[in-house]
Specification:
Blueprint: H1 3-8, E1 13-16, H2 25-37, E2 43-46, H3 52-62, E3 70-72, H4 76-84, E4 90-93, H5 95-103, E5 114-118, H6 127-133, E6 142-146, H7 153-159, E7 165-167, E8 180-184, H8 190-201, E9 206-209, H9 216-225, E10 231-233, E11 242-245, H10 251-258, E12 263-267, H11 272-278, E13 282-284, H12 288-311, H13 314-326, H14 329-345, E14 362-366, H15 376-386, E15 394-399, E16 404-408, H16 414-421, E17 425-426, E18 429-430, E19 433-435
Parallel strand pairs: 1-6, 1-7, 2-4, 2-5, 3-4, 5-6, 8-12, 8-13, 9-10, 9-11, 11-12
Antiparallel strand pairs: 14-16, 14-19, 15-16, 17-18
Length: 448
């Protein structure tokens, strides 16, 4: 069946396909067409953090020439403004960020025009999804896109019961599944990974298979820049010394590609389980291009340090002399290098907003507590290192069973800190953060 008409009509739908936004194009096109004509309300697309940008970009391409406005984000700051100003129609974000948007009253699930649930089998849990969808009506459209229907069965049964299934996996392969080679890549780094593969393996001929033609121009530019050439196709490639699957194929397509030559699968985050299911025999490739770039960065750092040593700044000697009396010189040097690297990586704090800073005694509500094994040091470390809050501006920390309350001094804009901290992780738990509204502190609030 075709998923496009079903999505246009606003019906529920399950799409079973390999993990790549290319296979979700028809469902996305249906949602965009519906938003262009019916204006049913904001459609919420929930995806794993690592795939939000790729899905939002795919939707942007499909929405070109339509009035549909699209936004994707990992934190609630910008999305809050867009939703409250009614300047977005299709939002791509994570379940936890979406839940935070509902708590800010920016996202009203009771008025939602639909929910797209992307790869729930890759989520850590579905607690946030349950909290989000409890306020939707029975008429709210729900579309589930999954690469593993059995792993997503609970979500499908609860939210898309008896919905039609668009099975893009195809039938079983027409031959034995061959051994393949795999290399992990970021979604946005697939084109550069292809260039690294060529440099490392130096194949006599190359074919690149993609599920659609979206990135063909990008691939051609990347290959030209590296002085290479390849057949780039969405069909059956000609015989080649190396066949790169830019998108992950169906099991039958994998056998088809292997008939043309040895196959390398590019494996983005979250797709490891799917690759293990379609290819039992796998050998990893560790791209030396990425290692070479890392070594170059280290060499550049060494040269910068050597230049600083030759300048011999007197003030610096005076500052570290007492440390050299108490610690090994190598330990001091390593600590200073670590501080320098952290300072280089730290993103600059955003410009202050026009809004007035938080008042005295303002508190942050952080969705992690004793039950998660968190400590006050964990909370302070995240605020200082990741959110650039001065240590002296962090006041009393109340660690409850399921959440924490943190006092911030008046000069700190608590709204900005909440935006920067939301989505960060402590003890492997992604944080929901907001400015506390002064609810009674007698009981722990229930965790959503």
């Amino acid at each position: 069946m075709s998923e496009d008409p079903v999505a246009v009509r606003g019906h529920n739908l399950v799409v079973a396909a390999p993990p790549s936004p290319a296979y979700g194009a028809a469902a996305l096109s249906g949602i965009i067409a519906r938003l262009s004509t019916e204006h049913p309300g904001v459609v919420l697309a929930l995806a794993p953090d690592t795939a939000i940008g790729e899905w939002a970009a795919a939707a942007e391409r499909l929405a070109a020439g339509t009035p549909v406005r699209i936004a994707g984000a990992h934190s609630p700051g910008r999305l809050t403004r867009l939703l409250k100003s009614d300047t977005v129609d299709l939002v791509f974000t994570s379940p936890d960020t979406a839940l935070d948007l509902t708590r800010r009253s920016a996202l009203k699930m009771g008025e939602s025009g639909g929910v797209l649930i992307v790869w729930p089998e890759c989520w850590e849990d579905t607690e946030a999804l349950a909290a989000l969808l409890q306020d939707t009506t029975r008429e709210t459209q729900r579309i589930v896109v999954t690469s593993d229907p059995s792993a997503a069965a609970a979500v499908i049964e609860r939210y898309c019961w008896k919905a039609p299934v668009a099975d893009l996996m195809g039938g079983p392969p027409g031959g034995s599944v061959p051994e393949v080679r795999t290399t992990p890549v970021a979604w946005t780094g697939r084109a550069s990974a292809v260039v690294d593969l060529i440099e490392q393996l130096d194949p006599a001929s190359l074919a690149i298979w993609t599920a659609d033609a979206t990135d063909h121009d990008l691939l051609r530019r990347s290959l030209r820049a590296g002085g290479s050439a390849a057949e780039i196709t969405t069909g059956v490639p000609a015989a080649a010394a190396l066949v790169v699957a830019y998108d992950l194929p169906t099991p039958a397509k994998l056998v088809e590609l292997a008939a043309a030559g040895p196959v390398v699968l590019l494996v983005p985050p979250g797709a490891e389980g799917y690759v293990a299911r379609i290819a039992a025999k796998r050998r990893p490739i560790h791209l030396t291009g990425a290692l070479d770039r890392a070594r170059s960065e280290v060499d550049a750092s060494r040269r910068t340090i050597a230049e600083a040593v030759e300048r011999a700044p007197a003030g610096a000697f005076l500052a570290i002399a007492p440390l050299l009396e108490r610690h090994e010189a190598t330990a001091v040097a390593a600590a200073l290098y670590d501080l320098w690297q952290n300072a280089r990586k730290a993103s600059p704090a955003p410009e202050p907003k026009a809004a007035a800073p938080a008042g005295p005694g303002t508190k942050l509500w952080i969705g992690i507590g004793k039950r998660d094994g968190a400590t006050p040091n964990d909370v302070v470390g995240s605020l200082v290192k990741e959110c650039h809050v001065p240590r002296e501006a962090v006041g009393r920390i109340e660690l409850r069973e399921t959440f924490s309350l943190v006092e911030l001094e008046a000069q700190v804009n608590a709204d900005e800190v909440a935006e920067r901290m939301a989505g960060k992780s402590i003890r492997k738990r992604r944080l929901v953060v907001r400015v506390d509204q002064g609810r009674p502190a007698g009981k722990d609030r229930p965790r959503r």
